[in-house]
Specification:
Radius of gyration: 23 Å
Number of strands: 5
Number of helices: 5
Structural class: mainly alpha
Order of helices and strands: EHHEEHHHEE
Largest sheet: 3 strands, antiparallel
Helix content: 40-55%
């Protein structure tokens, strides 16, 4: 990988995006949510350090684990010294796990209800309804609509 740091040990937002795999848009969002605070050049361009790169990777890990930005903002200082802040981190992880388990139960209940509806209306799992002829036709692949599960979470 190319060396993105200039002589001052800094890089611009596009370079940080390339190094971390986090989009420029997400990096701007992280700044908006006060998760990262890049320095600015005299022209107003964002510049990031090696520490910011590490921080962005931590933030990405936390988002992937299901934490929202406000919880991440409170966790980041604790992660600087995880041994000292073990109880706080444990509490956050435990709360997140409980929330996800509850959400999982809700999704499983909805799936059971969909099966009951399918059974009631005689819909086999490998067919789908078409509006053109009011019939069923076999599906060659699972046809799903992309759904961002984070929209249904209460944060």
């Amino acid at each position: 990988m190319a060396d993105f740091f200039n002589e001052d040990g800094c890089m611009r937002i596009g370079e940080l995006s390339t190094r971390t795999g986090v989009s420029v848009r997400s990096l701007r969002y992280y700044e908006q949510q006060l998760l990262v605070e890049p320095q600015r050049t005299s022209a107003g361009h964002r510049i990031y350090s090696f520490e910011d790169e590490h921080l962005v990777l931590q933030i990405q890990d936390l988002f992937e684990a299901g934490f929202c930005s406000s919880v991440i903002r409170t966790l980041l200082p604790a992660l600087l010294n995880p041994e000292r802040n073990r109880e706080m981190i444990l509490a956050a992880v435990t709360a997140a796990r409980a929330r996800l388990e509850s959400e999982k139960e809700t999704v499983e209940a909805e799936l059971r209800q969909l099966k009951r509806l399918g059974d009631r209306y005689g819909l086999a799992p490998d067919t789908h309804v078409t509006l053109q002829d009011d019939g069923h036709e076999p599906s060659t692949a699972a046809q799903t609509v992309a759904f961002d599960h984070r929209n249904r979470r209460l944060r």
